[in-house]
Design goal:
- The chain is an alpha+beta fold.
- 20% of the residues lie in helices and 13% in strands.
- It contains one helix and four strands.
- It has a two-stranded antiparallel sheet with strand order 1-2.
- The chain starts with 10 loop residues before the first helix and ends in a 7-residue tail after the last strand.
Length: 61
């Protein structure tokens, strides 16, 4: 049986708790193909590679 809180938390306290959850920095990795910083498990925006294969075409400048 879950316990109920004794008192209601204020809005400010609730907001502060939620802000603390947002503070964590997302992990970033280097793309093995081009070396750009990208998020894991996401196609690299610079070169279009994912898991060693070209998935999307990118405009070359």
């Amino acid at each position: 049986m879950p316990h109920e809180p004794k008192r209601r938390h204020s809005r400010e306290r609730k907001v502060e708790r939620r802000h603390a959850l947002k503070l964590a920095i997302k992990k970033a990795v280097k793309c093995p193909n081009c070396g750009n910083i990208t998020l894991p498990h996401i196609v690299c925006k610079a070169c279009g590679f994912y898991k060693g294969k070209q998935v999307t075409k990118t405009a070359k400048k």
